[in-house]
Amino acid sequence: MIYLDYNATTPIALDVAKAMMPFILEEFGNPSSSYPIGKRAKKALKKARSQVARLLGCGAGEIVFTSGGSESNNMALKGVALSLRSKGRHIITTKIEHPAIFNPAIFLIENGWDVTFLPVDQYGFLDPDEVKKAIRKDTVLISVMHANNETGTIQPIKEIGLIARDHDILFHTDAAQSVGKIKTDVRDLCVDFLSVTGHKLYAPKGVGVLYIRNGIKIVPLIHGGGQENGRRAGTENVILNVALGEACELAGKHLEDYTARVTALRDRLHNKIIADVPKAALNGHPENRLPNTLNLSFPGKIGEEILAEIPELCASTGAACEDRSVTISHVLAAMGVSREIGMGAVRLTLGRPTTEEEVDQAAGWIIKAVKGL
Q: What sign for the dihedral angle of Cα 230, 234, 236, 239?
């Protein structure tokens, strides 16, 4: 098996698994307890919070541990909407967001808010001027993903953040796909909120983070005890939070090496495929893209059928087949990709364990499958 679906999920890094083990087997204390085993759990949480904060370039007190990216996104959108509903009920986002943004936005629409979904260009890139044009007197939040999960296109987050600050509007970015792959310094990005997902970062599933800039208060999604400085109730999951802290520590140490190595492997894969299948079309920005992400369309083919010919390859498509019809993804549709091109999309995403041998083998399999079909 060759795994090229790292944007879907990642394996748990060995050092992350090792960091978790004491809290699985021995250190089971409640961080709110005052006796030694509880104090050790609290100390471990403090360390994990600092590790995440270092990677994001923020203070430890600005980190809120959550159950994952979906909760973090819901917390940002719904929390701001409820907190500022007397100021305004308008939110701005894009047509290419993950369902964890799109569906909370729909929920808010159904409950009296107004949401503007901005278009993108043929590369999946958002023009900051479109954001500026969409701002209204009652706009309270802008939410734009940092990098797209399907195409890898990186958005101009800093430029949008500056626009938001000029208009005194809060700004959130879903950075599930970018954290650990490219620099995600919250100060440099000019964001007020940033969502992190552990299982995209070689940590376990079920853990994430919402960065909330100091001084901002929002209505919590979960009410109960005073954990996470009153922003998210519930006894902290020390095991998973420690794991995410270690994963962020590892990501920060190896970010430059990862970027260079994986970019080279991605481009090697791309070049090998188009050398034999020159009609393969790149979906996403040719340069301003995540280092690990390659989304290719094979005109006249169906992505699911291509992958069905290669059971040894773990990858994703940009289309869903239902009742013998093919519907391209909402991301490719928003980019203006035609049905003929979009239905042949295959997403190949590389990770830390990916090797040259795997890339070469996968390219050969894909070429053979496309030509066979």
A: negative
Indicate the SS3 state at residue 98: coil
For the segment(s) 14-251, the CATH number from 3.40.50.300, 3.40.50.1110, 1.20.950.20, 3.40.640.10 is 3.40.640.10
Measured CA distances, 115 to 72, 190, 231, 296 (Å): 19, 22, 25, 31
**pTM for the full model?**
0.96
> What is the distance in angstroms between the CA of the first residue and the CA of the last residue of the chain?
21
Could you tell me how far CA 304 lies from the centroid of its own chain? 23
Q: Residue 327 — pLDDT band, cuts 50, 70, 90? A: confident
For domain 2-7+254-372, the CATH class is: alpha beta
CA 264 to chain centre: 22
**Alpha helices in 6-119, H assignment, sequence order:** 14-25, 36-56, 69-83, 99-110
- Catalytic-labelled residue, pool 190, 248, 314, 321: 321
Tens-digit pLDDT profile for residues 227-261: 999 999 999 999 999 999 999 999 999 999 999 99
313-314 vs 345-349, strand pairing mode: unpaired
Instruction: Report pLDDT digits (tens) over 113-143.
Output: 999 999 999 999 999 999 999 999 999 999 9
Burial of 337 (0-12, 13-18, 19+ CB in 10 A): buried
- Region 184-213: mean pLDDT is 98
Task: Tell me the Ramachandran region of residue 290: left when phi exceeds 0, alpha when psi lies from -120 to 50, beta otherwise.
Answer: beta
Is 321 among the catalytic positions?
Answer: yes
- The boundaries of every CATH 3.90.1150.10 domain in the chain are 2-7+254-372
Confidence of residue 319 (pLDDT cuts 50, 70, 90): low
List pLDDT tens digits, range 45-55. 999 999 999 99
pLDDT of residue 193: 98
Q: What is the spatial distance between Cα 241 and Cα 228, in angstroms, rounded to a whole number?
A: 12
Among residues 314, 316, 340, which one has the least CA distance to residue 328? Answer: 340
